[in-house]
TrEMBL record:
This is Mannose-1-phosphate guanylyltransferase. Pfam families: GMPPB_C (PF25087), NTP_transferase (PF00483). It is an enzyme of class 2 (transferase). Residues 6-235 form the Nucleotidyl transferase domain. Coiled coil: none annotated. Keywords: Nucleotidyltransferase, Transferase. Residues 253-336 form the Mannose-1-phosphate guanyltransferase C-terminal domain.
Amino acid sequence: MPDLEAILLVGGQGTRLRPLTLGTPKPLLQTAGVPFLAHQLARARSFGVRRIVFATSYKASMFEPAFGDGAAFGLSLVYMTEETPLGTGGAIRNAAEALTAGPGDPVLILNGDILSGHDIGEQVRVHRAKQAAVTLHLTEVDDPSRFGCVPTDEAGRVTAFLEKTPNPVTNRINAGCYVFTRSVIDSIPRDEVVSVERETFPGLIESGELVLGYADRTYWLDVGTPTAYVQGSRDLVLGKLSSPALPGPTGEYLQLEGARISPEAKVQGGTAVGARAVVEAGASVVGSVLSDDCVVEAGATVTDSVVGQGARVCAGTVVRDAVIGDGAIVRPGNELQNGVRIWPGIELPERALRYSSDV
Ligand code: GDD
Ligand code: MG
């Protein structure tokens, strides 16, 4: 397959992932030991993508220091920024100024928060063979109301695009990876706020253009919520999705440089232990993300949670399905559960919070 160009959408604010995204944009959050995007970049490269234009907005200046010109990834990377966010369509149109593809060439567009095992090469082949205007990767989820609902006919032609509808007509949803014919991108108005989901796709379907679905049932996850983000990291460490970007041996856990795990601690379930993080004796950490320089003290229990950079979970504390912000301290006698989020730098005094399932 000839070299392929891509646009990566990374300008969103990651609101649902606060407080993790207050200091770091969602695509740069450490996931299985590397910035989330490293997994997407490596997979894209493995399918023949050689040049990627980043469509940045929120915390735009943080991307180039993380990935540079892309040479380390075997890619050529270009950064485009919207002064004010232009929405998904406006971002694609703005980033397209940096493309080299000709009008009839396919261009890959990726949402910057997706882990997917699908065959991008096959998606591009289908797009070319059928000469579609756009070919959307589709997957199936239990709750389609949180996504773009995408019904198709028997031939795979998309018949409607219903973004976040309360009454989905199918479980098949937009998986956030598109092949656009370049000239179709150029037809999106410039310097305007445009949503591909609410305007461009419905408009193309309405005017009779061929919008195709490429459906499959491989691994797929949008890491846009804390629960999903922790799951993504865990699945990568457990090998449920292979990634060429994993920084070391994986299995029950992944450990970055300088991490210290007591031989009397239990660390398992796909936990990622960040650089210089400490897990003391008798602590139990399961299926979680421990960020760089954090400490889980003796006898503490951390399950399905994120412990932020430099944060401290003190002796005996219980943390389950929770997010502890960077630098926060959770003093002994606390029990954090059920999606609780502690903001960065907060010190939770002894016995301040206790969750009881009886309440
Ligand atoms: N540059 C730029 N500018 N990027 C943006 C902007 C913007 O104004 N708005 C959003 N993005 C980026 C986000 O960073 C993310 O990578 C991508 O566009 C999608 O935004 P999300 O905020 O993650 O959208 P979503 O998850 O609610 O819904 C989208 O993804 C679903 C699949 O995960 C939609 O495309 C749905 O139709 C789809 O089902
Ligand atoms: Mg998303």
